[in-house]
Each structure stands twice: as C-alpha cells, then as structure tokens.
Structure to design on (692 residues):
C-alpha cells in the first residue's frame, strides 16, 4: 500500500533490450502480484523510451528491469535518465539479472535503487519495493 | 526379541514391511520435475517386454543408444559454444579451443544478430558483441572462420529466426574459399517453434517462419548432405523453466511438426529425417535426465517409423547434442558450479549424447573467461579418459530405476502429445500460448519450492557464505561495438549496387511467392547484403511478430 495515496503499489516489470530470457521477469511479476501489488508487465524487447512511457502512463511507483544480455550499462542508465527528464525521479528503480559486482556499484551510483542478482529471493524483492516506496512517500517534497 | 527392522528381509514384502517401520527424512522424494520416486525399484518395475522397449544399441527403438558401438567406437564431440565481440575476437577463441583439444566448433551470436538487426540499428545499441559474436554480412562470416578448415571441422551455429540468412552467409563464405556446400559439415539450429515457446528471439510471424524452416530442410536435402538444417532444441525450453517431461514433449512435438511440414512440401521423409538432430539440456537431477534421453530416442524412432513411414534406420535414429544447464549455475560460491556441471555432463554421457557443451563456472556472472572455459573442457576430458564410464555401452541399461523412469518419461510425453493434438497441433498450440503457460507455471512452482526451502540449492538457500565477490570475469570492450559498426559501414560502402538491387528484387518476389528462398538468399549474400537489410526486406512482405505479454 502506498503511504501517500493509500492505493495498491503499482509496479512495471520490463524487459529492456533484445534478450528474450523472460523466466525471471515472469517469476518476479507473479510474486509481486501475489504480494498484492498491481503489476504491469511490458513484454519483451522494449526500448528505454517505451519503458519510461509505460511507467508514466501507468503512474507506477516502481519499475523492475530484467536484463540478462550484458547491455545493462547502456540501457539501464538511459531509463534512469529518461525518468529524470520526465520528472519521475521518485519512481523506485530496481534491476535484476546477471550483473557483475562492479556494475552493481556503478548502477547504484547512477540512481538505481537496488540490483538483484541470480539467487535472490522474490520475498526480498517484495520487501525492498514495499520499504522503498514507503520511504519515498514520507520524504518531504 | 528382535524387531522386524533387524531381520534380514528375504522377500519384497518383508523388505516393504521393514521399510515401513523406518521413519523417512523430511525431504521431497521426487525429481526436480515433481515426478514421485519410490524408495526402491525392483524387477517388478521393468517393462513388460524388455526386448522390444530396451533392445540393443544401434537397434530399434534405440533406447540404449543410436550406434552399435557408441563410445567404444568414437567419443562424443566436445563442442564448446563460443562467441563474443566481433568475428576477429571469436575467431581467436575458436583457434584457442581447437588447440586445446576441442573437436568441433559452436558459434554463439549476439542478440542483434539473433533478432535480425544490423549492428548499426538503434535497437542494437549496447548489445553488439555482448552475448555472442556480431555477424552482419558474409564478410564477417568469412573472418569468423578464417584459417579454420571448414571441410574438416564440423561447425554448429546457434541461430534461429534468421538461420536461413546465416546459412547463406556461411555457404558463400566457404564458396569464396573454394569449398562447395556439399563438403560442409555441421548444424544450424533453425528451431523457430521453440523461439516462440521459450527463447523469444523472432523476426517473422509463425507461418512464414515455418515456411523458411521448410525451405532450408528442402534445400539442404539437395545441396548439403553433411549438414543438419535443424537442431530441434529442448535446451531453451528447459532453461525457461520447464520440467524434464515438458522439455521432452515440446521438443519432440516441434520436431514431428517440422517432419509433417517437410512431407507436406513433397520431400521424402528418408531424404531429410537422417539430417535432423536434437539438442537437450542436462539438468542436475541425474537419473531423470538419463531417463529423458533414453525415452526421447525411443519415442522419436517409433514416431518416425510407425507414424511417418520412414524406412531407413538412419531416419529413426535420434542423435543429439547436450549442454549442461546454465540455469543451474549459481552466482553464489561460483566454484561449486564446476561440480554441478561435471554431474550434469556425466548424465549427458550416460544418456548417450553425440556431442556435449559444458558450461563454465563463471557464467552466472558474465561470459566465461578463458580459464573457466578450459576447466569446462577439461571436465569432459576427465569424464572421457579417467572415469571409465565409456568402457561399456549404456552402462545403466536394465537398471530397474532407470528403465522405470524412462517409461514414466515416455508416458508423460505422450500425455502432452495428446493435449497438443487436441489444440490442433504444435503450431496452433504455440499461437495460443499453451506451452508458454505450462513452462511459466512449472518455473514458478520450482521457484516457490526453493524459496520455501523444500528444495535446497547449495550456497543459495542453504550452506550460504557471506561475500562471493572476487571471481575474475570477462569484460567485453565497449569499443568493439564501434569497431563492428565501422566494419559494417565499410562493407556497405563497397558493393555493386546493381547486383544488390537485383538480389533484393528477387528476394521480395520470392518471399511473396512460393518458391524456395535459399537460392535468392545466396544471391543476396553474394551481393553482400547485410542481415538486417535482408530481414527488413522479408518483413516488408511478411510482417513481424509480437507476443501477447502474459505472466
């Protein structure tokens, strides 16, 4: 539940880039839905522009980017940038996939809230989104 | 007085009574695909007619192997999948692997190549050469195999939606070196049905994509006698989260669907069936995997002979490549992956595989380093030369448990065949999303078992340690993307525009008509048309494909 609006949390689960490995994205989407969130799954092969457009249109609280193609250092910063251009910096951004440790650090510096690598429990992801969206909502504007 | 537990059981019933008095551990006594496993298998579990269902190696129904001598005649081909950066970097890795005793080549293409985009396409940004090698034109293909004797080494190419285009590039690259298509041996994956089901790299709608596959099968049956035009693949279906039985059923049904289409085209089943090959996953549930391979051979042989009327024994033989399960690798305690891979590889060998790729321990983190790849190759060499498992054919044949589980796999497979037939066959089932949903459900179920702790993954939900960092990983230089785009633009600026124009006119006309597309694709390759240009020309005629997203 969002602290500001009292509505259910809305989360976009997106697959940026060309990789078709959607097992993780679908599992996360289901787990978030089972945890009571409204989940919008974009489907495959999305450009950063398409993803940000969906986030804005759906008025999402968070976006999860699932990427296993190694293109994360190009595509993820672009999503963060576009969100910022749209004054949507308050959207919680999480990334999941095969992301090397050094890149996790870089992505967080660029504004990604958390990165989940293989083996992460869906419960941890649910808790992170709930906690982050709550925290964001309490921050003064 | 002694209890029944202390007695030496003298009959099955006494054993059963003794077992019943022993408390069982709290563990799921089932395969990772949720097939229940009994505490003991005996001769009561063997098939009713073992001579018919088990038989001998090289003999119908090939449960014990496709060849009479199996690994006593020839070991499996050790074929490590490789590809990254531009054709030059991958060519270097190929030569490295051949120098270290690898016996065949296997090409991984990057995402833009798999999706039919050139390296300079806006959607290729950040993806060029990342997950495989970037191939845009026949020039890249020529560089990729430079200095490698293409008439001696067999080459495998993992590409599907644009497979016909890549095959045309390969044939023309060999032609430039004076090697005829008839002399080329190898495999191109081409299995488009499993793309819609699992791997999700497509270019065209299902029906024209099926036509392209059929065109290749037909053309190869006339011009490439040593080539496997389709490698019907369960690997990706399993990686996407299917059970072993789903992998078996969906893969075999895909294969039978290609057979139906080729026969409908008028090709004699015995002219192409011997050149169909398969590609399966080797997951960590050891016996389930072995049973899966044995069942697969038996079902394929029976269907080809009895349903499709193939007369040549070569048409009945299901030969397959195996790759250990990428999805079984963990980012945590990555060295444990060497052990997992060894066990999975052993299952492939005991299941009678014809070729094998072993994953590298660092692949849950990135593409593998040279050291990690070498250990993976050494794992195969240790199985082949140290363990002794190759000394006899199908060493597990006749084992009560293995034969019983093989039968069970077969039953589960036919149950899926029936459900698919009720939906109007595999093409219709794929369009309706049936296998896609079955896989998503199975994958969610397995994940739930892991998260509930019912199923243990060492280092992930049990026996965990703190910090796992410190594994060196392969970094792909971002400059390679620019280098590839420059190669492409150099190739594009040095072409005979009249020849190119003729090639595209021919291509569009052929796509709109019914003739086999391979000859016009070869013309386009010779005119140095790029992959993206060819795909876009075909999409103008056929359209593209969009999946209805569902989870």
């Amino acid at each position: 539940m969002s602290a500001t609006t009292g509505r259910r949390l809305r989360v976009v689960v997106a697959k940026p880039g060309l990789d078709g490995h959607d097992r993780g994205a679908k599992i996360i989407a289901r787990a978030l839905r089972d945890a009571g969130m409204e989940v919008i799954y974009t489907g495959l092969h999305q450009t950063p522009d398409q993803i940000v457009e969906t986030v804005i249109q759906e008025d999402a609280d968070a976006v999860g980017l699932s990427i296993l193609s190694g293109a994360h250092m190009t595509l993820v910063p672009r999503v963060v940038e576009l969100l910022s251009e749209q004054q949507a910096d308050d959207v919680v951004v999480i990334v999941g996939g095969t992301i090397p440790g050094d890149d996790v650090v870089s992505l967080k510096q660029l504004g990604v809230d958390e990165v989940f690598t293989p083996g992460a429990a869906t419960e941890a992801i649910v808790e992170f989104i709930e906690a982050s969206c709550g925290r964001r909502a309490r921050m003064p504007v | 007085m002694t209890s029944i537990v202390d007695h030496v059981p003298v009959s099955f019933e006494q054993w059963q009574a003794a077992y019943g008095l022993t408390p069982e551990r709290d563990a799921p006594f089932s395969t990772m695909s949720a097939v229940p496993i009994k505490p003991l298998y005996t001769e009561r579990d063997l098939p009713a007619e073992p001579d018919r269902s088990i038989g001998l190696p090289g003999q119908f129904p090939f449960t014990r192997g496709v060849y009479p001598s199996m690994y006593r005649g020839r070991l499996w081909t050790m074929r490590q999948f490789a590809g990254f950066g531009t054709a030059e970097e991958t060519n270097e890795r190929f030569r490295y692997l051949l120098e270290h005793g690898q016996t065949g080549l296997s090409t991984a293409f990057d995402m833009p190549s798999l999706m039919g985009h050139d390296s300079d396409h806006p959607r290729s940004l950040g993806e060029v050469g990342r997950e495989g090698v970037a191939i845009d034109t026949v020039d890249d293909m020529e560089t990729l195999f430079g200095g490698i004797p293409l008439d001696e080494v067999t080459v495998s190419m993992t590409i599907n939606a644009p497979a016909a285009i890549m095959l045309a590039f390969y044939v023309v690259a060999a032609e430039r070196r004076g090697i005829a298509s008839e002399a080329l041996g190898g495999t191109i994956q081409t299995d488009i049905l499993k793309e819609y089901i699992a791997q999700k790299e497509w270019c065209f709608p299902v029906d024209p994509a099926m036509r392209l596959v059929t065109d290749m099968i037909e053309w190869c049956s006339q011009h490439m006698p040593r080539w496997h035009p389709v490698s019907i693949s369960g690997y990706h279906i399993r990686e996407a989260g299917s059970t072993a039985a789903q992998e078996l059923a969906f893969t075999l049904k895909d294969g039978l669907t290609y057979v139906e289409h080729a026969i409908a085209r008028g090709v004699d089943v015995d002219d192409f069936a011997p050149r169909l090959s398969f590609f399966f996953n080797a997951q960590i549930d050891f016996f389930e995997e072995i049973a899966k391979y044995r069942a697969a051979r038996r079902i394929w042989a029976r269907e080809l002979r009895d349903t499709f009327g193939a007369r040549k024994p070569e048409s009945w033989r299901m030969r397959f490549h195996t790759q250990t399960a990428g999805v079984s690798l963990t980012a945590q305690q990555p060295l444990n992956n060497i052990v997992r891979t060894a066990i999975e590889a052993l299952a492939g060998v005991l299941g009678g595989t014809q070729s094998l790729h072993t994953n590298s321990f660092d692949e849950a983190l990135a593409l593998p380093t040279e050291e990690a790849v070498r250990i993976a190759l050494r794992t195969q060499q240790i199985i082949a030369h140290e363990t002794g498992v190759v000394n006899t054919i199908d060493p597990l044949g006749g084992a009560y448990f293995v034969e019983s589980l093989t039968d069970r796999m077969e039953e589960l497979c036919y149950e899926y065949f029936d459900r698919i037939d009720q939906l109007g066959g595999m093409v219709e089932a794929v369009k309706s999303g049936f296998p896609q949903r079955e896989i998503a459900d199975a994958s969610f179920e397995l994940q739930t078992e892991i998260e509930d702790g019912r199923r243990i993954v060492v280092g992930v939900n049990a026996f965990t340690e703190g910090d796992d960092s410190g594994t060196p990983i392969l970094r792909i230089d971002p400059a390679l993307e620019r280098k590839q785009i420059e190669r492409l633009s150099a190739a594009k600026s040095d072409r005979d525009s009249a020849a190119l124009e003729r090639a595209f006119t021919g291509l569009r006309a052929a796509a709109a008509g019914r003739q086999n597309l391979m000859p016009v694709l070869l013309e386009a390759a010779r005119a140095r048309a790029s992959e993206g240009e060819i795909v876009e020309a075909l999409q103008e005629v056929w359209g593209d494909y969009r999946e209805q997203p569902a989870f």
